[in-house]
Amino acid sequence: MRSIALLICLFVSMIIAAQIPQNGLAKLSPRTKQYLLQLKNSDNNLNPLPDYVYKKTSSGVYMSGLVKVNAAVNASDFETLGIHVGTKAGKIWTVQIPADKVEQFTRLNGMDYIELDELVSMKLDSVRKLTHVDSVHDNSAFE
Fold first, then answer.
1. What SS3 state is found at 65?
2. Angle, CA 94 vertex, CA 97 and CA 79 arms, to 5°
3. Which residue from 18, 58, 83, 126 has the highest number of Cβ atoms inside 10 Å of its Cβ?
4. Which position has the higher pLDDT, 24 or 8?
């Protein structure tokens, strides 16, 4: 019985340890990792990469994202890079990052997770037409 309890404790501690960033840097979403890799492999870092959400303002080009912060977060580090913090819902913050500072932003301390915004695309609307559910909704299938 003790060996089972010991195995359960070991398993739980491994799960908890796996969730803590090993190098002190935030975990990146797959989309954010993909962006950084494409940025690294691109010839011209000044042009925005396709398939990402950008916001052009008078002060530059920004990318929006969500960040999960921890107790070590320092808002002045964000301001130094020109990052605008929007909503602060507990530990989840919305941010607008200058497009040329995304890589530097991922190296800041005080964040557990970073996720860049994705393009919105229609998926279920096209399925409705293919399965003729749209004709059921407008009663034309019963006439």
1. strand
2. 45
3. 83
4. 8
Split into its structural domains, the chain has a count of 1
Nearest-angstrom CA–CA distance, 62 and 65: 10
Q: Which are the contacts of 41, defined by CB distance < 8 A and separation ≥ 6?
A: none
| Euclidean distance between CA atoms 52 and 61, whole angstroms | 12
* Segments forming the whole domain that contains residue 98: 24-120
**Which CATH number do you get for residue 72?**
3.30.70.80
User: Is 57 contained in some domain?
Assistant: yes
CB burial of 70-80 (b: ≥16 within 10 Å; e: otherwise) equals: eeebeeeebee
DSSP state of 110: S
62 contacts 98 by C-beta, under 8 angstroms: yes
Q: 118 or 135: which carries more pLDDT confidence? A: 118
Q: What is the pLDDT of residue 23?
A: 59
The string of pLDDT tens digits covering residues 66-96 is: 999 998 898 899 999 999 999 999 999 999 9
